[in-house]
Design goal:
The protein has about 325 residues and is an alpha+beta fold. The chain is about 25% helix and about 25% strand. It comes from Candidatus Berkelbacteria bacterium Licking1014_2.
Length: about 325
Amino acid sequence: MVSRKKAIISALIILAIVASFLAGFLNRYWLDYLTGKKIVVNNDNFSLLQEGWDLLSKKYDGRTDKQQMLYGALKGSVDSLGDPFTSFLAPEMVKRLKEDLGGSFEGIGCQITKSNNDLLVVTPLKGSPAEAAGLKPKDKILAIDQQSTEAMNLEEAIDKIRGAVGTEVTLTIQGKQGGVILDLRNNPGGYLDGAVEMVSLLTKADVVVWEKNNNGQKESLRTTKKPLLEKERLVVLVNNGSASAAEIVAGALQDYGRGKVVGETTFGKGSVQNMEALSDGSAIKMTIARWLTPKEREIDKIGIKPDIEIKDDPTTPVDEQVERAVGEF
């Protein structure tokens, strides 16, 4: 994992905004909260909500913001589910997320070149994120954010390594030791397709991940291409910051015995979220399914336990986890 310079964009959220959770509720009433008209609810299940709304509107001794009251009711409904990955997003938050994803771009402080169709590190700059991540001259970059560099030209590779300020990029590196260290530490995950492509690059095994919905129905995602690195020796680095799609990759490679998983137990974020837009630009993000490894191990709230458990000591100048991974070769 290599952190791009500067700061402040955290989790990748696919802004494909979703409205199914309260669809039945929203279809049964109309509201003009800006003009103060009464909400009309035709479903007896919401009579208590109507009663409370009317009471506050008529007797509360203070200013009422009906839009914020509505958002508060929606947020309370969503929060009552007790799922930290299901949330209501007000229009301001949706707008801010879009602006973050459209922010300025920075690199990782590393010069790269193309030689004999290989993408190589020339040198990391002193004090750069690339140096901090342990990149060395002549390291071969096999993939960028789980996408193979085989067909990339130099400009495409540079463009993919650069990214929104404060985000992180995952480089799959083959060092001079003759093996591949896939560093998924502090990788919060990304697109599911990227995880499938990464596993496809490393093994010809079939199922990459199972997606199980709340009805118990399962759907598999499978490898998609020729495993160009199938014969390369492999170690996967993980820690408690490895989450979501990163855990899918680690879990699949571990299930198939493709390489040792080294580090610490991963975060345990194995649920699938989606978002739907509500009519005024707000949104509800909800959990719709769970991910299972190829051997149908649960990821959510459990994580992937490494084959070799070792912590990195931040007080030492060396990276103990990387050194242990190199020792596997």
